[in-house]
Amino acid sequence: MLMFNRFRVLSVVTLMSTTLILGVQSRAYALSVRLASGVQSFTCADGAGCDLDPTAGIVSAQTSLGGIVVSSLTTGTGAPAIGSLSDADLDLNIVTTFGANRTVHVFVSDTGYLGLGSQLFNFAFGGTNPRTGDSVTALAYIDATNSLFGTTTLVGQLGAFANNTNPSAPQGFSESQSFTATSSAEPHSLTIEAVIAHAAGGPNRATSFDAELTATTATPEPSSLLLLGSGLLGLGWLGRKRAS
Predict the structure, then answer these.
(1) Of the four, 17, 63, 130, 141, which is 20 to 30 A from 2 by CA?
(2) Radius of gyration of the chain (CA)
(3) In angstroms, rounded to a whole number, what is the distance separating the alpha carbons of residues 20 and 13?
(4) What's the CA gap between 63 and 61, in Å, rounded?
(5) How distant, in Å, are the alpha carbons of 86, 127, 211, 218, 236 from that of 89?
(6) Nearest partner of 41 among 124, 133, 149, judged by Cα
(7) Which parts of the chain have pLDDT scores under 50?
(8) Left if phi > 0, otherwise alpha if psi is -120 to 50, otherwise beta: which for 185?
(9) CB 140 within 8 A of CB 120
(10) Residue 100 to residues 14, 165, 172: CA-CA distances in angstroms?
(11) What's the pLDDT score for residue 78?
(12) Are 71 and 50 in contact (CB under 8 A)?
């Protein structure tokens, strides 16, 4: 009987330990993407029902944003798929189509990043701008309150990039810069925001881009490097992501 009781206690402890480990491995990640225009907004978190990619650290979602957007596929990538919470790497990719005289804000954000004091980031942005007068801007933020989509401190801005040369065909753009930002607390959150502004007139048109914020100790995502080499690769990059 004593031996049986010891075996039973050991079995319970083993079961509890296994459950704890599996619980840690399957925890929901804070990584989220958001689209917003006026009063309409849509948010999807990694692992939620709206997430089309089951991989932890990748959230991919589609939305019409209350009829404002004709179509969109937004993908955010972060830890643990790329980088880590102590070696930040955050990526935002979108292909979206909507009409004239509209502005859409696209975000990716994650919490729990570590590191205090001055930090050096590389911020890269590339894609296609559809029509004369349309513009795209990318902004990166660090937030000491560790709030999802927190924008208390601007890390850096790329753009606005405007299509000033061709009234009907997409124009490619790309830029990469290094910025220094100070974190006054850990953990903290990081957020990328892209502002897509379509000018008045003309039909529905598609904008595609990739933006990546990388701590200088992290390795940029290979797909982002390829996209930044040529803004016109944006649609092809997304096609490969859909196929996978």
Answers:
(1) 17
(2) 21
(3) 11
(4) 7
(5) 10, 19, 11, 6, 22
(6) 149
(7) 1-28, 223-244
(8) beta
(9) no
(10) 61, 18, 19
(11) 97
(12) no
Eight-state DSSP code of residue 219: P
- Helices 222-229 + 234-243 axis angle, to 10: 150
Alpha-carbon distance 73 to 62, whole Å?
Answer: 5
188-197 core/surface letters (b: 16 or more CB in 10 A; e: else):
bbbbbbbbbb
Compute the distance between CA of residue 107 and CA of residue 154 in angstroms, rounded to an integer.
14
Kindly report, residue by residue over 115-163, the tens digit of the pLDDT: 888 899 999 999 987 677 889 999 999 999 999 999 999 999 999 988 7
Task: State the DSSP code for 233.
Answer: G
Question: Contact, 93 vs 210, CB < 8 A?
Answer: yes
Amino acid at 103: T
Domain residues of the chain, as ranges? 29-243
- Distance in angstroms (rounded) separating the CA atoms of residues 82 and 88: 8
Question: What is the rounded CA–CA span in Å between residue 216 and residue 199?
Answer: 36
The pair of structure tokens assigned to 84 is 């880590």
Write out the DSSP string of 29-68.
P--EEEEEETTEEEEEETTSTT-S--STTEEEEE--TTTT
Rounded Cα gap, residues 19 and 38, in angstroms: 44
Longest dimension (CA), the chain: 86
Q: Are 198 and 100 in contact (CB under 8 A)?
A: yes
Q: pTM for the complete prediction? A: 0.79
